[in-house]
Specification:
This protein is mainly beta. The protein has helices at about 5-10, 250-255; strands at about 40-50, 55, 65-75, 80-90, 95, 110-125, 130-145, 155-175, 180-190, 190-200, 205-215, 220-230, 230-240, 245, 260-265, 270-280, 285-290, 310-320, 325-335, 335-340, 345-350, 350-364. The strands form three sheets. It has a 14-stranded antiparallel β-barrel with strand order 1-3-4-6-7-8-9-12-13-16-17-18-19-22. The protein has a three-stranded antiparallel sheet with strand order 2-21-20, with no helix packed on it. The chain has a two-stranded antiparallel sheet with strand order 14-15.
């Protein structure tokens, strides 16, 4: 049943994981379990429709811009026991934009941009058991403006140049190949960044500062089971250690008397389950349901939603020469949230998003 992995994978990248609002790709390592040698290139566009109303009755326009992020990967079998993979993705990101006006967060903008390269090795102990691990090298940069009534119209701005963090990946898997059963557990370490940048605000001038950020450790549990030679049940759980995550540039701390740009107090979870079916030798289809539970705590202005539920549909067509083309779409229902800043709040409800993905692969 290994050939059916293409059908199960056709939804990967259909939409962001959305844990804590900035977790995009979910840092998957499933490429490492592909049968044979394989290379892929993909792109996802996530188009949110998010708007809110503040406590004064003012409405905002579209609060978040579309996000586009790419992925690529290469996997090769070195021998009967060893295999290797290199994966590129963009694990975290945000593009918040509140138009100028009377809304409490008007003029507040944030762009978070990251990219990551992961190198992995897998060793098959026997037919059923294997271990895998590797190194992650990740880039992180930000450009943020805080303005509007909620921030005292202070016009604070922080921009930071690229910095790179290094982390590691460890995991193991149990498989029954003839039944297409696999359970894989993967741990990713935290990533530390020291962002050198510049902060400015009226009356405070502009100064060069250094801000330390630690992106949290995560655990991914991926599972699959063949229900028949042409039908596969798959799913996964992702945990992120976001509790206590804090981003506090020095000048902003000084202005606010110890405040932070972000101060999270909850871990995050993502649950997904899907079903794939092979219609013919060339065509496979799949559906996936995903859920990020609400934390039921006030959110910040930069990610004004509290978890999500999504349904994704996708299809993969494989040509005789080994090239496969995947298309997928995911509809997101973003959970309602109260965004609070500086004693001012705004309510965001009834918001949605659409994720579109295309992926081209080649098995050789």
């Amino acid at each position: 049943m290994k050939h059916f992995l293409i059908g199960a994978a056709c939804l990967i990248g259909a939409g962001p994981a959305l844990a804590d609002g900035i977790d995009l790709a979910g840092q998957p390592v499933t490429l490492l379990f592909r049968d044979g040698n394989y290379v892929e290139l993909g792109y996802t566009n996530w188009g949110p429709s998010i708007a809110g109303k503040d406590q004064f009755g003012n409405r905002t326009g579209k609060a978040l811009n579309n996000l586009g992020f790419a992925n690529a990967g290469f996997k090769i079998d070195l021998d009967d026991q060893w295999s290797a993979a290199v994966i590129f993705d963009q694990p975290w990101g945000a593009d918040t934009f509140y138009p100028d006006g009377a809304f409490a967060f008007a003029g507040t903008r944030a762009n978070v941009d990251t990219s990551e390269v992961t190198g992995l090795l897998r060793y098959k102990i026997d037919k059923n058991w294997s271990v895998h691990g590797g190194i992650r090298l990740s880039r992180f940069d930000v450009d943020i403006t805080l303005d509007g009534r909620a921030f005292g119209n202070m016009g604070y701005h922080w921009t930071a140049e690229d910095d790179w963090g290094i982390g590691y990946v460890l995991g193991g898997a149990y498989e029954i190949p003839e039944k297409a059963i696999r359970v894989a557990l993967t741990y990713s370490s935290k990533l530390d960044y020291s962002l050198e940048g510049r902060e400015s605000a009226p009356g405070m001038g502009s100064r060069a500062t250094t801000t330390d950020i630690t992106m949290p450790r995560t655990v991914n549990l991926d599972m699959q089971m063949g229900l028949s030679p042409t039908t596969l049940l798959f799913g996964g759980i992702r945990w992120g250690d976001w509790k206590g995550w804090r981003v506090a540039p020095p000048m902003l701390e000084e202005i606010t008397g110890g405040g932070a740009l972000v101060n999270d107090d909850s871990d995050t979870w993502r649950f997904k389950v899907g079903l794939g079916h092979k219609l013919s030798k060339q065509l496979a289809v799949a559906a996936e349901l995903s859920h990020v539970p609400a934390e039921h705590t006030p959110k910040g202005s930069l990610t004004p939603f509290d978890g999500s539920t999504s349904l994704a549909l996708g299809a993969t067509y494989t040509f005789e020469n080994g090239v496969s083309v995947t298309g997928a779409a995911a509809q997101f229902w973003l959970h309602d949230a109260d965004a609070r800043e500086g004693g001012v709040y705004a309510n965001f409800d009834g918001n949605t998003a659409l994720g579109l993905n295309v992926n081209i692969g080649y098995k050789f």
